[in-house]
Specification:
CATH topology of one domain: Immunoglobulin-like
Number of helices: 2
Shape: rod-shaped
Order of helices and strands: HEEEEEEEEEEH
Structural class: alpha+beta
CATH class of one domain: Mainly Beta
Distance between the termini: 195 Å
Radius of gyration: 58 Å
CATH superfamily of one domain: Gamma-adaptin ear (GAE) domain
Number of strands: 10
Largest sheet: 5 strands, antiparallel
Helix content: 10-25%
């Protein structure tokens, strides 16, 4: 008998007596609702990065400590008042009425100086009605070589003995007539009346001449 046979049989018997290790059972597949089956959240591709300090709106510029205080916008310039004072009615000359007169109005005038060609001069007009009326209108008629400021003397309600004034700028050019023609109209109880008046340009020269003569006579005395 082979002496190794008993050894082999003993090894086989010992092997048969050792407990078998349990086979590894595979883990069941995860259920759909399992958190492990949920897709992994992707990281935010646009994280809240800190704001770029250069992109922040600039703060309003503060005035320097020695800067002057802001000035308020200046108001619109007001038209300057006329420097020519209205003369007294008693010192004004009477305009010459035309032959055909139906308006009960006296027209007085006065130039501020000598009427020189090409030089403007102020003409003062004063209309005094002898009766009550309405819609008084005093207008200097245009003529070649004559320039006058726009506007007319007008009044809606006219009281007797009241004075209605207006001043105009008059410039006489070459070829202009020797006088002004002034049309006066007014509504009276009998109806609309009108009349033409004449104002000579040499009235200013005559007035200055008379004033000069009076001054000379005073000096002689």
């Amino acid at each position: 008998m082979n002496p190794r046979i008993p050894v082999i049989l003993l090894a086989l018997a010992l092997a048969a007596c050792e407990p078998r290790q349990a086979e590894e059972v595979p883990a069941p597949p995860p259920s759909p609702d399992s958190p492990a089956n949920a897709p992994a959240a992707s990281p935010d591709t646009t994280p809240n990065a800190p704001a770029d300090p250069t992109s922040a709106p600039a703060a309003p510029a503060q005035p320097a400590p020695d800067a002057p205080a802001p000035r308020e916008p200046s108001a619109a310039p007001k038209p300057a008042a006329s420097t020519a004072a209205a003369p007294a009615v008693s010192s004004m000359a009477m305009a010459q009425p035309g032959a055909k007169m139906s308006v009960a109005v006296d027209l007085r005038y006065q130039f501020d100086g000598v009427v020189t060609e090409g030089q403007p001069v102020t003409l003062h007009l004063a209309a005094i009605s002898r009766v009550d009326g309405s819609n008084l209108n005093v207008e200097v008629k245009p003529a070649p070589g004559l320039e006058t400021s726009r506007g007319t003397l007008s009044a809606q309600k006219v009281d007797a003995a009241s004075v209605y004034r207006r001043q105009l700028s008059v410039t006489r050019r070459a070829g202009a007539p020797d006088n002004l023609r002034v049309l006066v109209t007014m509504d009276m109880p009998e109806g609309t009346a009108f009349g033409y008046y004449t104002i000579p340009f040499d009235a200013g020269q005559q007035r200055d001449g008379i004033t000069a003569q009076k001054s000379d006579s005073v000096k002689q005395r």
